[in-house]
Design a protein that fits this description.
There is one protein chain. This protein has a domain of about 190 residues: 3-Layer(aba) Sandwich (Rossmann fold). The strands form 2 sheets. Strands 4-5-6-3-7 form a 5-stranded parallel sheet, sandwiched between helices. Strands 1-2 form a two-stranded antiparallel ribbon. The chain is elongated, with a radius of gyration of 30 Å. Helix content is about 55%, strand content about 10%. The protein is α/β, with parallel strands linked by helices. It starts with a helix and ends with a helix. It is built from 11 helices and 7 strands.
């Protein structure tokens, strides 16, 4: 699984903030309790002394050290019991002086014995989904609210195909694709007229894939290409945006063909498609353009890679937006 530097940094900052807050709370509680129950300070001093005694035990012979440490552990346990009893007698919970970490397992460090803690993994997923939502309406686009009843059931006169049955197949394929997604899954070419649910299903896929811990970049073709162009011609360009786009687990380019065409955009589209195809990294492209329109806009080199290397999902029906507006 891969995440952007921004996502990793944000997760680190959140964990550090959690840890700092927990320690501050414990410091305030300790000051409060020791002012009210001075005996606890004496107990804590004795605990510190047993800790120093353990260090002293390391200079003893093996058998003597073991017996001594066992005795110290017993004393330590007795002192801790006295602290808990004193807290309880004065109206506090027995664990009131424990540091209230959000995650007890890793103590808000994000790692346990060198391995990522479950809390860090979940935090990264949450940040990634929030990032996805910041550039789209991903929260509103799920497989569950993709409404097949908006698609005509009778077979179309021109194609002889029922749009509703066809879209039921597309929906099922997208569900399976999202659930089974891996770093080398197929690329998808979602095409058809405007307003048929291409963006909805690509975002539904993005939600599930991001939830499963994969790095997803979703944006319109216009925004992606504009960000690459700004980076290309900016002072001190380090290629960070281009690297993210080429290296992420799943790249979703929405509404390809809607952007203003320049020599730069054509070259950038070719580089994205060709590089990720060579690296077996999946891309989902949605477009309202036909094959001939794609070829006219991006040249045959680009179109052949999409048509030949992507799974084609043709969307049928009538503009859903117009149908909804008439309800």
């Amino acid at each position: 699984m891969s995440y952007s530097k921004d996502t990793l940094l944000k997760a680190t900052q959140i964990l550090e903030a959690r840890r700092s807050k927990a320690q501050s709370i414990q410091t305030a509680r300790h000051a409060e309790v020791t002012a009210k129950v001075p005996a606890i300070v004496e107990y804590e001093t004795k605990l510190s002394q047993t800790g120093l005694a353990v260090i002293k035990a390391l200079g003893m012979g093996k058998e003597d050290a073991q017996n001594y440490i066992e005795r110290l552990a017993q004393i330590n346990g007795e002192i801790q019991a006295l602290i808990k009893s004193a807290l309880k007698e004065n109206g506090y919970a027995e664990n009131y002086l424990d540091i209230p970490y959000t995650c007890k397992k890793c103590e808000d460090t994000g790692f346990v014995e060198g391995y990522a803690c479950e809390c860090r993994t979940e935090l990264l997923k949450t940040i990634a989904k929030e990032s996805l939502a910041s550039v789209s309406q991903s929260a509103d686009c799920t497989f569950e609210n993709f409404m097949l009843e908006y698609y005509p059931l009778p077979a179309d006169d021109a194609t002889g195909v029922s749009a509703q049955k066809r879209m039921a197949e597309v929906l099922e394929y997208c569900k399976c694709y999202a659930e089974d997604f891996g770093a080398h899954s197929d690329s998808l070419y979602m095409h058809g007229a405007t307003g048929l649910g291409k963006t909805h299903l690509s975002l539904a896929i993005a939600n599930v894939v991001a939830e499963n811990g994969f790095k997803v970049i979703y944006d319109t073709a216009q925004n992606i290409l504009s960000s690459l162009e700004r980076e290309k011609f900016s002072y001190g360009n380090n290629g960070e945006r281009e690297k993210e786009i080429l290296d992420c687990d799943l790249l979703i380019i929405d509404d390809l063909g809607s952007e203003f065409t320049t020599q730069f955009t054509v070259a950038a589209v070719y580089n994205i498609i060709n590089t990720r195809l060579n690296r077996s990294k999946p891309v989902i492209i949605s477009t309202n353009l036909t094959k001939n329109e794609l070829e006219a806009k991006y040249t045959q080199r680009v179109t052949s890679r999409i048509i030949g290397g992507y799974v084609s999902l043709l969307f049928l029906g009538k503009d859903i937006r117009q149908i909804k507006n008439n309800y």
